[in-house]
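Morning!

This is the sequence you dropped in the shared folder:
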Amino acid sequence: MNYMSKKNVLRRRRLTSSVRKRITSYYTESEQEELTRAAATQGVSLSSFVASAALKEARKINPRQLSK
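The structure's back. Tokens below.
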């Protein structure tokens, strides 16, 4: 059987403790179509897909400090 690597599986974000603030972003029509197709392929909403990608990039730039 072929199993997908756990690294490649997009996890649903847990929103139980979220602050739920809006962020507006602008895309060309072709960019929005590309994002929509990718989100559908992953089985998540467009909002969740964009938020997960943005957080991934933010964490690369701002790595979490280890607790002492």
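Headline: The two ends are 43 Å apart (CA to CA).

More detail when I'm at my desk.
O.
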